Amino acid sequence: MKLLIVEDEKKTGEYLTKGLTEAGFVVDLADNGLNGYHLAMTGDYDLIILDIMLPDVNGWDIVRMLRSANKGMPILLLTALGTIEHRVKGLELGADDYLVKPFAFAELLARVRTLLRRGAAVIIEKSVSGCRSDGRSRQPQSHPQRHAHHSDQ
């Protein structure tokens, strides 16, 4: 699994990279918002760990731009901004999880694994070979169904 960390604090970025690499992940690290956004748009990441207070482009804007571009990878916001208002804003903008610094690495790792499991379940459900959905049932269809619409006019 490939992760992108967007974190401008050098020690935190190195700590995350080391811990997640040791946990078996492939990790790229961007130290500012512009580079992080570029990597997120062009790379094939399974999950992004994103700080909010970043140079160049802040994390709020990165979440907004990624979701506007239909990038659906899970995003975990990892930030010192810990008020309820900040958490709600992050989740409503499209982040999948929100963890406040300081944090326990074991909790971060558990959240990363949970988000990746959820993402894998969605991919499996969407990629069942040979099945189409009419949006109303889970029955496989060999061809699109035609629906008659009647009017009282």
Biggest pleated sheet: 5 strands, parallel
Low-confidence blocks of residues: 123-130, 132-153
Strand order of the largest sheet: 2-1-3-4-5
The helix content, as a percent range, equals 40-55%
- Total beta-strand segments: 5
Task: Label the structural class.
Answer: alpha/beta
Shape: globular
Report how far apart the termini are: 57 Å
Q: Report the CATH superfamily.
A: Response regulator
H-E string: EHEHEHEHEH
Structure description:
With 153 residues, the protein is α/β, with parallel strands linked by helices. It has one domain: Response regulator (Rossmann fold, 3-Layer(aba) Sandwich). The chain has five helices and five strands. It has helices at residues 10-22, 33-42, 59-68, 84-93, 105-126, and strands at 2-6, 26-30, 47-50, 75-79, 97-100. Strands 2-1-3-4-5 form a five-stranded parallel β-sheet, sandwiched between helices. Helix 1 (10-22) links the parallel strand 1 and strand 2 (26-30). Residues 2-116 form the Response regulatory domain. This is Two-component system response regulator. InterPro entries: CheY-like_superfamily, Sig_transdc_resp-reg_receiver, WalR-like.
Descriptive labels:
single chain, 153 residues, alpha/beta, Rossmann fold, 5-stranded parallel β-sheet, globular, disordered C terminus, Two-component system response regulator, transcription regulation, transcription cis-regulatory region binding
